[in-house]
Amino acid sequence: MTRTGGVPGSAGREPARSVLPDGAPPPDAVDGLAGVRAVRQALAGMILPGAADVGSGGLVSGAVQAEWVDLLAELEAVKNAITATQARLAVVLDEATRADEARQSIRAERQGRGVPNQVGAALRVSPHAGAGFVSTSRVWVTQMPHTFAALQSGVLSEWRATLLVRETSHLSLEHRALVDEEICGPAHLAELARMGTRRLIARIKELAAQLDVHACVKRNAKAVSERRVSVRPAPDLMVYLTALVPMAQGVQAYAQLKTHAEALKAGGDERGTGQIMADTLIERVTAREPGHADDVPVTINLLVSDQTLLADGNQPAVVVEGAPVGAGVVPAPVARHLAAHAIDTDTAWLRSIYVNPHGRLLATTSTSRFHPQGLAALLRAREQGICATTWCDAPIRHTDHITPHTDGGPTSLDNGQSLCARCNHAKQAPGWSQKTTQLDGLHAVETITPTGHTYVSVAPTPPRPSKTRDATAAPDTNSTGAAPDGSLATGQTGRDLDSTPDRVTAPPWTPAVGMTGPAHDRTPRSRYSIGCHTTTAHGAIAYRPSPPPRRSRPGRARARRRRPDFSWSHPT
After folding, report:
1. Per-residue pLDDT tens over the stretch 180-201
2. In 3D, which of 174, 157, 541, 120 has the Cα closest to residue 349?
3. Which residues, if any, are the signal sequence (predicted)?
4. Is the N or the C terminus of the chain less surrounded, counting Cβ atoms within 10 Å?
């Protein structure tokens, strides 16, 4: 994010003045952005009483330690008050944006579409989290004044204030106001300060059931209709497999797994109870035999260097698709293990993706690499499956032009980006603009918001091959080529894409292999494949020309032309 005069995008604007909901400035109020920065700097440089004695090994009195505890409590209250101020700012920004867009005759359902992205970028969270903060802040400010006052005073934390909004979302405005006063009113603040989070939730549900039992029944029925199974990444190449089901069903399933695990433990099974429960769950869901929970066929897209896959390199691979978003880096031995232990090798294929010495993706092996399908796959590989927007961790759903096609933007790799649905829709709002740039040789996108703030998102560095070949070196004339019928023959040279007349000589670039599933001893997926001269480890790849087009029968509707498959496999 760029800063102008120390303020992000604030050139020529007067600092906003902090005001109370009734419009009157509070006593000793912090005056806008400069005052907030002064407070932050003062807190960062605050001298802790007795800290020097701790560093020198001296004795710290009990009074000083008590002051430390008081400081912790007061700083927590300050943090809650800061959240309340951020909520007020989010609400006024949303209202001002909607008013501006209403004057531009934008439809009501499209107004304020870009606000969650602006708030998320300012808070350095995802646009989804930014949207949640905006909607929750609107409820605090406009519908739950006692909750908002408790947040401002520091008695209520952001999470507990969010719970008050969440657990009353099914109530009418009148009933929500009653719950707000009953829990966070001035007469109940002392009790609220002593109340634990679970007790708070129980108290909210109790009041809601007393006020509107029919709304509670409707909420429960809606929750049952939203049952689902989800998966999200966990540390150390693990995942959380979560099932959201009705309480009775979930308790019954857990009890069955635990009973089965305890029975096996009693029979001498050396695994832990949790391990047996996890293995049993996978075996029953995947219909595998007991003891074969690991033998689950899976398709995973990996971005892996040639040395890691085909030699003994240590460059880690990156999960692009087929696993939970954010699964991230896979150690080199694990990537080779996935490649070598395939359940069904016929479902796997390899495709080379070329990178320059800086690690920037350049092309695929397909000569028609800029058709929509190939380009979209390359864009997803460049962003490694995660939305290109800064701080957004959502999975990729859309591929879009950086400079819009209507403004003459080309459909190319440099002018393309992969985004989630929310980020793609947000940048269509008035006042948003983007342009392509580079940072350290990597593809980058500069986004300018309606408020003038600039955010730069940089594509992650792909796995780098251990060695690069010389683009000027002569091809290996002794490598195996392809016979006209597609069978391998000795003494013929595979086709070198670099030597074709319509290509310009590029700087040295080396393939990094994009792998879908485990593969070895693999034959081409179809009768179409294209070869290219690669590194010594790869050798020459067999080239098969496309067959002549079929003649259409008289009176028969013209079939849609099939696009050939340009994927290739390594002849291990």
Report:
1. 999 999 999 999 999 999 999 9
2. 541
3. none
4. C
